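Following up on my earlier thread - several people asked me to post the actual chain instead of describing it. Fair enough. Here it is, all 236 residues.
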Amino acid sequence: MGMEKKRIPVLARTIDKLASILPFEPSYYPKDAPIEYVGHPLLDQITEFKTCINAEVKEVAFMPGSRKGEIKKLMPIFLELIQELDINATLIIPKHFSKQEVKEVYGNISHIKVSHEAHKTLLNADFAFICSGTATLEAAIIGVPFILAYIAKPLDFFIGSRLVKIKYVGLSNIMFTKFKKQTIHPEFLQENVTVKNLLMAFKDYNREEFFKNSKELRAYLKHGSSKRVSQLLETL
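Reply from S.P.:
Thanks for posting it. Predicted structure:
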């Protein structure tokens, strides 16, 4: 955020209108800056939300990421976790991967159900284990309780942790802490991503509290961004 803050005065002086998809971003700018929170685009894409939390976890979704490197790091842990949980598991795989790429990246997944429809799978799941990224905010908006697990290259993590001054990597945690001063889901990073840690967090998870918080997060985001953005473009 340090580098972004240095650019704020320049942007405030030079832009005609800045459409922000982060509810808290306008607070970083001078009060007279032409910036406006326009809503979040995920609320244009996601129109179905969970209406309740099942008493028992029967379906678990796994999203190990969209980049080959991060998938290869998480899959051995996720495969062992699926075995330990002994539960109906669905692995969400990006549509653009070929059959050969799936075999190379994911390993032996012949015993696991596969889906290419992330939103539908998350909506039908009782729980999820998700790599860092937009998927974490998608899950929070839909209302499925989840745990974030992320393993970056050691050098990338070392550099990123010093350049980016944020406490959390999950988008929903970053947003939720801005207005509620607490996290909405657990995060496990680097060497802390272990089967033992994930199992313990799963067993201790308060899914009802998460569900309540997910509805508050949706209310915080308010609405999608497309309508307001189109209105702004008409005025230019």
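Residues 79 and 109 are 8 Å apart (CA to CA). That should answer part of your original question.
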